[in-house]
Structure formats: structure tokens, C-alpha cells
Amino acid sequence: MRLSRYFMPILKENPKEAEIVSHRLMLRAGMIRQQSQGIYSWLPLGKRVLDKVNAIIRDEQNRAGAIELSMPTLQSAELWQESGRYDAYGKEMLRIKDRQDRPMLYGPTNEEMVTDIFRSSVKSYKDLPLNLYHIQLKFRDEIRPRFGTMRSREFMMKDAYSFDLTREAAEHSYNKMFAAYLRTFDRLGLRAIPMRADTGPIGGKLSHEFIILADTGESEVFCHKDFVDFDIPGAHTDFDSVEGLQAIFDKWTSLYAATSEMHDEAAFNAVPEGDRLSARGIEVGHIFYFGTKYSEPMGAKVQGPDGKEHFVHMGSYGIGPTRLVPAIIEASHDDNGIIWPASVAPFDIVVINMKAGDQACDDTCELIYAALSKAGKDVLYDDTDDRAGTKFATADLIGIPVQIIAGPRAVANGEVEVKDRKTGARETMTIEAAINRFVA
Questions:
Q1: Would you say residue 200 has pLDDT above 70?
Q2: Closest alpha carbon to 191 in 328, 22, 340, 60
Q3: CA 123, 310, 66 angle in degrees (round to 5)?
Q4: pTM for the complete prediction?
Q5: Lowest-confidence region among 140-154, 335-349, 424-438
Q6: How many angstroms separate the Cα of 211 from the Cα of each of 164, 182, 190?
Q7: For position 205, what pLDDT does the model report?
Q8: How many Å separate Cα 31 from the centre of its chain?
Q9: Quick check: 198 pLDDT over 80?
Q10: At residue 39, does pLDDT exceed 80?
Q11: At residue 69, does pLDDT exceed 80?
């Protein structure tokens, strides 16, 4: 992508409305634009990051055996009245009526709808276990939306829903998502700690929030410091192994970790003083097991091996991609801008032409741009006629992991400079060596 033809409205000044680093940098880098309170457009640079985040989430959901579908954003109020949540959910739910005066709502979550899909299609235990998920825009009318897309009214959610015959089987499904979440956040460059949490309006009997530690976190969290060094489940994790996944769950819940709502001061004080960690945290995922909370009132049951009908045991599992993007920025930035983990960077490499219009610089940059693009790299080519300082500031601000800098003096010697955005390390090498480093 040539920067001269790309839509990336950079802001030179810090936006006054931005209270935290991620909100400020996302606005300055031209990733998002506010349309109304708590509602944002995702501009091309932000959309590229969001798509890569979603691809990792989708990959790990599929790996764990979840099956993707797509459900509507608008839902009938009848389903929520059937479950008993329509009146209980509160003002966060946007309630509307269609032209036939039928009550509708803009879905804040999908337990009722997915239960309706299940009960109309699945009748036997032989079709279990089943886990259905989708990635969809949702709406909750937050009383105080803030921090950009960290807490917005319209947001994107990956929500998965598991169905099992027994509690034991449901807990295995819960453990699958538990392990999948650890892997997902690790691939996004985040260290997420699972903490006992309140079930809130979702309801249920077992719940964990996945929290990353950050000074701008919305709530205080408490945990054992050893969580920071725990090993993440590997790519070859067997998601069918009951014992293996239970061992992962047991390890990651063996030490104290709780959000402020679930904090037990006495239990935390029992942790050796040097091992206690209290900090601010950002919630990036939340999983629930709630048994038959929805299946009983909505009649979602299957015939068991005993020939009798049984209400299914359910769980739900949420990740907010539009919340994850600013969370990654909060965890990875410096004074100059964003530092993207390679897995979600909008581009892999930025090629910076220090003197656009100079034949040697133009030819060198075109050669590098073509070679890296052909090799499958996402390359942004800064072919603008901006000043050198502006080009460097833009490259640092948008946080692309690798910068290849072609200036007249270096190019005359057959060389370019390669900069690592994260470390700031610079290395001069031949043009051929620079290409070979990133196409191998």
C-alpha cells in the first residue's frame, strides 16, 4: 500500500477528549473516528488491526472445536421475555419497536437467540457437545462511555455458547475455552490472568475474567505474582483431553487471583507479602458456566442415553475485539506512539523513501516494496514528499514493527537502514540483505 494513496488522517495534536494513552494514540494515528457518544467508525488502519485480532480469535476458537455462525444484531423481545431477562437487564439494553409495533432490541448478548437455535435443531445427546460462536457488533447503552473503544456503546464481541448433557461435560467445555483464551491473548502479545469474577447480568455458577495489568485499568485486581511467569498452553494442546485441560485449569486457578468484586482480603493476606500483586486491570475476556439457567425456561432439552429428556447445561464465552485493540496499545507503547506486536500490526514493514522524486531513492524503494509484497508481506510504502522528521514521526506513531529507510547517501552506497520499532535498534545493510532478511 502506497501511503500517498492511503486514507490515514494523522492528527498532529493530542485530542482533548482522550483521557488515556490508547484513546489518544488511536485518534492521532487515524485508526478511529467518533461518530457520536460511545460510537466509533474504524478507519482503514484500525480496521486492519481489528481484522488481525479477529483472525487470531477465530483461529483459536476453531482449534478448540467451536463452530462459527452468524446471528442478527436485532432480536425479538419475545425470546428475552421467555428467559425472564427482558425487564431485568436494565437501561443498558436498547429497546425499540418495528413498524408493526412489535418489541425488538439491539442485542447486548445472544444467550436467548442461540438457545432458540439449539432447541429447534438439536434433539439428541448424540449431537453433543456443541459450541457455537460468532463475531458481531453489539450495543449496550453505557451510562458513561469513555476511553474510546475501551468502553463504548457499540462494540464488537466474539461470543461463544456451549451445550452439554451434564455438568461434568459442561465443565470440560468451560476448560476448553479457558485454555483457548490463554492461547489467544498470548498470541496477541498480552499476558492475561484469569480471575474469579462476578457473573453479573449473564448469571451462572462459575465465572472468570481474563485481566491484563495496566495502570489505566478500570478496576483494582489482586493476584499472586507468579502468574506473570506461568507457561501458556502450547499449539499442540489436546482439547479433547479431559485430564489435560483440567490440569491447565487447576494450575491457572491454584493461586490467588480475583477482581475487586470477588476479593477476599483475608485470603489475599495469606499470600506471602513478597508474592502479593495488587494493580489496576483491564478485562479482555469473560467466561461463564451457568448450567440450566436458560435451557429450563426456554425448554432446551435433549434425549439422553437413558431415553429421558434432559435440560442441557450451557456456558458462554466473550472476548471484545474492539476492546482488545486499545488494551494492546495500553500494554505496548512509548512516548513516540504505538508498538504493535507483529501478530496484529496493520502492516509488517514500512518502507520510508527519504527523498521522493530522487531517481535512485525511488528505484530502490520500488524494488524493496515489490520484493517484499511478492513474498507475502504487508508493506506500507511512504512515498510522500513530507519532510524526514514527519515521515519518522508517522512511522513511530503508527507502530509498524520494522522500518526500512532509504536515503540518498545510503542508497548511493547500495545500502538502506533497518530500524526495529520496539527496541529502536538501527542497522545499516545492503539492499539485497534487507530484502533477504524479511523474505526468508
A1: no
A2: 328
A3: 60
A4: 0.94
A5: 140-154
A6: 27, 11, 10
A7: 57
A8: 16
A9: no
A10: yes
A11: yes
What's residue 164's pLDDT? 98
Cell for 372?
Answer: 517484499
Q: Give the Cβ contact number of residue 143 at 10 Å.
A: 9
